[in-house]
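Z., the sequence and structure:
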Amino acid sequence: MSEAIIVFNAGSTSVKFGAYEVAGKRTLTSISHGEVSDMQTDPKFVAKNSAGKTLETHEFGKDRAIDHRTALHFVITWLEKNITGMKVVAAGHRVVLGGTRFEAPVLIDADVLAYLDSLVLMEPSHQPYNVRGARALAQAFPGLPQVACFDSSFHRTMPEVAQIYALPKDVLDAGARHWGYHGISYDYISRQLPKYAPGARRVIAAHLGGGASLCAMLDGKSVETTMGFGALTGLPMATRSGDVPQDLLFYLLRRKLFDDASLEKMLSERAGLIGLSGVSGDMRLLQESVDPRAVAAVECFVYAMTKYVGAYAAVLGGLDAFVFTAGIGEHSVPVRAALCKKMAWLGVKLDELANVAGGPRISAPDSDVSVWVIPTNEELMIAQHTLALVRP
């Protein structure tokens, strides 16, 4: 019988999963991945193999809502029944915020879950559902070891001056802190880049997807990142605003155009690229559009990155390598070209043919800064951390 690690990313209406066979002590091989989607309205299950071929689909029934426990139980039961000889021996969970207590992945118990629940008010968009998934799995399979991997943990190496805000002590003590996110992705990239550019110490990585951020890394450790207290700040994203001035938000509240709930909803769901363009939050559609607002939205995205690159190059004292990753970073030739053009002052020289081909290296041989396209794999990173904790 083969053993497997399963990775879950539990959201409000969906649960994504990936299953990895354990070979030897540290080797993991992808077996299957999939999702239970539309859990509140029309729940559906799909499982695919490592090559992306659909293995099975299942419909629970329209207008039949299911909870996280039902979804997670179905996934594990299906995997163990349909993949010959497979036994799930541990589960890893993506959890957005680990707070000050967890600077690395941790085995989940009731005390851990209680602490993670206490952080829900800080990050209400993802944290409650991440925690709910882990709790539901503990109820469905009480003997199964579980590990939490945190998007914020990678950034706990930032110097203290980068983690604090200029606020009174009582506010800081209430949890106001520059947490940073996308850390699981940056953790993976920090481990992959030495295979391509072993001498690169000063690195900026760009995780550009529906959520987008930059991270400055020195010797593989985070020293700065664009997402701040929550996942709204930094770069404009598909539907999230990115940086906006605090006094503007107070003005909108004083005008009674929003209350706190509707303001958060606007900044999370109607801002960013979709708000600017009025067309879409999908970079692929924006790049194909001739609508001036769509063009302006792409330009704004690149401009925001340009400002942060300049700041982070200053923080790092120079730049040795730049990495594009995630959906936009891995697939958008125009965005990569536009940002590389803006980085010419740093000595970046783009190899246009390599950029069209998708890399991995897209900078010219004589570029002072090497530029790379490296696919991220957060799921595998979680599986590796999970295996390391359950099989030390």
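The chain has two domains: 2-150, 197-378. The first strand starts at residue 2 and ends at 10.

Let me know what you think.
H.
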